[in-house]
Amino acid sequence: DDELQTDGNRSGRLQNGEPGLAPTNEDVIRIIAAQLAEIGDQFDKEIQGRVVNDLVQHFLKENLSKEEITLHLSRVVRELTRSIPSDMEQEKAMLVLAMLLTKKIVNTVPSLLHRVYNTTLNYMNQQLHNYIVEMVSAVKQ
């Protein structure tokens, strides 16, 4: 019933949803993204330019492995997490900071998009996968 079109979208008859159905994954992702964006806007002021520039320099070093860059990103996120209010879940703060740093790095040096995106995705899969799954499950309920 939930057909997938060749362009990757669902068929038109279920696109608007039907009454009584649970939110789709797209709806859940939009809700989570809006919440994380709001938190990111608050954190944006906390991240100093030197932190971003330091990360840019690491990403520009082509001799560093993916693992080394991911470890460095992880260290920076942990350091920044210490300055976040303690009433927020640490995992949520780490997720938002990783995405915010990615945005800031790519805005500074757009040519790093592919490398930064892959590193951030790797970091999130290694460090925050279970948290992300739990967050999506909680919104679906």
Automatic annotation (TrEMBL):
| Mitochondrion listed as a keyword | yes
- Which residue ranges are recorded for the region named Disordered? 1-22
Q: Which UniProt keywords apply?
A: Apoptosis, Cytoplasm, Membrane, Mitochondrion, Mitochondrion outer membrane
**Swiss-Prot/TrEMBL GO biological process terms:** apoptotic mitochondrial changes; positive regulation of extrinsic apoptotic signaling pathway; positive regulation of intrinsic apoptotic signaling pathway; positive regulation of release of cytochrome c from mitochondria
This protein's major location comes to cytoplasm
Comp. bias (Polar residues): 1-14
Which superkingdom is the protein from? Answer: Eukaryota
Q: Which SUPFAM superfamilies match?
A: Bcl-2 inhibitors of programmed cell death (SSF56854)
Entries under Pfam families matching the protein: BID (PF06393)
Keyword Mitochondrion attributed: yes
One GO cellular component this record assigns the protein to is:
cytosol
| Coiled-coil boundaries | none
Q: Where in the cell is it found?
A: Cytoplasm; Mitochondrion outer membrane
Q: What is this protein called?
A: BH3-interacting domain death agonist
- The organism named in the record is Tichodroma muraria
